[in-house]
Amino acid sequence: MTDPKTPALTDPQPNAKRQDLQADTVNPGGTLTDNMGHAISDDQNSLKAGALGPTLLEDHFLREKLHHFDHERIPERVVHARGSGAHGYFELTRSLAEYTTAQVLTEVGAQTPTFVRFSTVAGFRGSPDTPRDIRGFAVKFYTPQGIWDLVGNNAPVFFIQDAIKFPDLVHSVKPEPHNEIPQASAAHDTFWDFISLTPESLHTIMWAMSDRAIPRSFDTMEGFGVHTFRLINAEGKVTLVKYHWKPVLGLHSLVWDEAQKIAGKDPDYNRRLMWDTIDAGGTLEWQFGVQLFTEEQAAGWDFDFRDPTKIVPEALVPVEIVGRLVLNRNPDNFFSETEQVAFMPSNIVPGMDFTEDPLLQGRNFSYLDTQFSRLGGPNWQELPINRPLTPPQNNQRDGHMRRTINPGRVSYYPNSLDTGSPTPDPQEGFRSHPVMMSGVKVRERPESFSDHVGQARLFWNSLTPIEREHLCRAFQFELANVETRHVRLAMLDQIERVHPVLASQVAIALGEPPRAGQTAKPGGTQDSAEEMALLATANADVTAAGGVQHDPALSQRAPSEHKAEPTPRGRLVALLAGDGVDAAAVEAVQAALKSQEAKFHVVGPHLGDLGGAQATKTFSTASPVVYDGVYALGGTAGGLPLAEHPDAQMFVAEAYRHYKPVGAHGQDGGALLDAVAGRTAPLTFAKDEALGVVTGNPDAFTQALARHRYWNRLSPQA
């Protein structure tokens, strides 16, 4: 049962603010003051010795204002600098009391307040949302037992096995130090030089080259806790656990050409989608799942659960859904909340413990260290976004930016001058699980961490043909941007260990001889039927996966137990219209989209009244790459029929080339579709519902949105 002194977790108004955050909110209006509360008479002119004279040093209002401005930018995160956050709650739907005493995982129905930050890894704070990169997925739980931070990614594995290599990994992927180029991109020499010399990265680099690294939105990507943790129950029994977030809207990604164009058209694309969804009263939702297993089970596997470059395949240990995460409130202030929020994997609550994963052990040190640097000192926990639900009670004092006023003269323990409190609680306090340890001090990697290829092959084997093709093209793009030939060759050697056919397709694009006998000859086209067939069927024997050779959970497209059913919910559609558009047609398609919780913008040659609709976007301010589908309604534009308008044609052609659903109403809309037939090469445009081209039926178009992409425009096996 919940301690009566502890604030209730269940929030009767999920959108309500936490009261302790609300207390620091400044209400607008009233008299302008300085930061010490002094009323200001003039904030437009500095104090001078005469109107044309020099500014006086005694103008303390000026000095305070400039002082704050000079220091209002804190150091950005070294990694994960580009981030976006939202508030919400976690609700437990199945108790794990059999495995842990952590209240957040035992009290069914309780709603734990959360703050979640999504981020890219490599780019600076001002970089775009859509580079090819792993995404951070960090969740802060404000539990009655203290803060729990689940600091994960949208990939379940990491590039390195030991934290001592982390600075080298990050230095390699950051812009090269002599010219600070390229920004937010791994497609350069230093990154691939490091990867080619670091075989343990092979599994994660397969994830990074897959569609997983360019998610369509935050709520269409999975999240993972990455490491294995321990859960401890009331009897002291230990169960190992891996954490998973499964998106309710399903798994969806951008295509690479689209991701690059969005970076220029709308660098805030993912951030804007989340903000607009919540701002309109919507939510972002995930199911929360766990993989539970014992050390005895793990001892029989041919890989080590402590190795952060390995997964526990879901085909080996199924994910059990035990809760849900709902994000439903945007931050009030980006800096105060999203930028100042501080996560630490060492923030766990009683009933949890760490494992001996060497990367996790290093992260537990590094994250605390970085908060001191970024947030100015030891009192960063007092910032509203980082505060626990219940006020801390300890003997810590002083330091930069201390906000807590501690009365009395006692600041130590044990003491007899302040009733001896606060005191440790041996029963309810955090206790580490007693693990027997012995050994010689060494700097070496355990033999159980030595297989770097097997799970990379498992990932490859589990992908669908179109996913394999995209992964192949990603390697081609990245390595073609590497200028040093010996680095390219070294990476081909590594890729060949996963599969020689994959290495051959990449080699051909780099002007190198193929690595497999059964592959297209040099000079062949990447799109040849022979090459595509080879990529579709090339499998390899898998090791280090507990006997699993293929796991559909690793594919974004293959059906598996916890993948969501296709839905048009949350999709954004461009409704193309010219002056004089049919109002009834506009209303029909809008009603069909609203009925399925899809969103839309009316895009026209100008803003405002089009006769039968109000345009909220124009062809110059909107781009097809930021929409999930296009529906043509007709009308005239600039004196021309919409079908003859170049920008309208481009909208349809680009959407079709990116495999998105396309729809049209009436003769005018159909004429626009006809006009783009020659603009979609190498694809062949056809009015065919099987290819996602729907005419005359708004409901059918809305259902076509659920499929997301129509890869069969590319090749039969897709």
Automatic annotation (TrEMBL):
<feature type="binding site">
    <location>
        <position position="374"/>
    </location>
    <ligand>
        <name>heme</name>
    </ligand>
</feature>
<dbReference type="GO" id="GO:0046872">
    <property type="term" value="F:metal ion binding"/>
</dbReference>
<dbReference type="GO" id="GO:0006979">
    <property type="term" value="P:response to oxidative stress"/>
</dbReference>
<dbReference type="Pfam" id="PF18011">
    <property type="entry name" value="Catalase_C"/>
</dbReference>
<keyword id="KW-0349">Heme</keyword>
<feature type="compositionally biased region" description="Polar residues">
    <location>
        <begin position="22"/>
        <end position="34"/>
    </location>
</feature>
<feature type="active site">
    <location>
        <position position="153"/>
    </location>
</feature>
<dbReference type="InterPro" id="IPR024712">
    <property type="entry name" value="Catalase_clade2"/>
</dbReference>
<feature type="active site">
    <location>
        <position position="80"/>
    </location>
</feature>
<dbReference type="InterPro" id="IPR029062">
    <property type="entry name" value="Class_I_gatase-like"/>
</dbReference>
<dbReference type="Pfam" id="PF06628">
    <property type="entry name" value="Catalase-rel"/>
</dbReference>
<keyword id="KW-0376">Hydrogen peroxide</keyword>
<dbReference type="GO" id="GO:0004096">
    <property type="term" value="F:catalase activity"/>
</dbReference>
<keyword id="KW-0575">Peroxidase</keyword>
<dbReference type="InterPro" id="IPR043156">
    <property type="entry name" value="Catalase_clade2_helical"/>
</dbReference>
<feature type="binding site">
    <location>
        <position position="363"/>
    </location>
    <ligand>
        <name>heme</name>
    </ligand>
</feature>
<dbReference type="InterPro" id="IPR024708">
    <property type="entry name" value="Catalase_AS"/>
</dbReference>
<feature type="domain" description="Catalase core">
    <location>
        <begin position="33"/>
        <end position="421"/>
    </location>
</feature>
<keyword id="KW-0560">Oxidoreductase</keyword>
<dbReference type="InterPro" id="IPR002226">
    <property type="entry name" value="Catalase_haem_BS"/>
</dbReference>
<protein>
    <recommendedName>
        <fullName>Catalase</fullName>
        <ecNumber>1.11.1.6</ecNumber>
    </recommendedName>
</protein>
<feature type="binding site">
    <location>
        <position position="117"/>
    </location>
    <ligand>
        <name>heme</name>
    </ligand>
</feature>
<keyword id="KW-0479">Metal-binding</keyword>
<dbReference type="Pfam" id="PF00199">
    <property type="entry name" value="Catalase"/>
</dbReference>
<dbReference type="InterPro" id="IPR010582">
    <property type="entry name" value="Catalase_immune_responsive"/>
</dbReference>
<dbReference type="GO" id="GO:0005829">
    <property type="term" value="C:cytosol"/>
</dbReference>
<comment type="function">
    <text>Decomposes hydrogen peroxide into water and oxygen; serves to protect cells from the toxic effects of hydrogen peroxide.</text>
</comment>
<feature type="binding site">
    <location>
        <position position="166"/>
    </location>
    <ligand>
        <name>heme</name>
    </ligand>
</feature>
<dbReference type="InterPro" id="IPR041399">
    <property type="entry name" value="Catalase_large_C"/>
</dbReference>
<dbReference type="GO" id="GO:0020037">
    <property type="term" value="F:heme binding"/>
</dbReference>
<dbReference type="InterPro" id="IPR018028">
    <property type="entry name" value="Catalase"/>
</dbReference>
<keyword id="KW-0408">Iron</keyword>
<feature type="region of interest" description="Disordered">
    <location>
        <begin position="1"/>
        <end position="38"/>
    </location>
</feature>
<feature type="binding site">
    <location>
        <position position="77"/>
    </location>
    <ligand>
        <name>heme</name>
    </ligand>
</feature>
<comment type="similarity">
    <text>Belongs to the catalase family. HPII subfamily.</text>
</comment>
<feature type="binding site" description="axial binding residue">
    <location>
        <position position="367"/>
    </location>
    <ligand>
        <name>heme</name>
    </ligand>
</feature>
<dbReference type="InterPro" id="IPR020835">
    <property type="entry name" value="Catalase_sf"/>
</dbReference>
<dbReference type="GO" id="GO:0042744">
    <property type="term" value="P:hydrogen peroxide catabolic process"/>
</dbReference>
<dbReference type="InterPro" id="IPR011614">
    <property type="entry name" value="Catalase_core"/>
</dbReference>
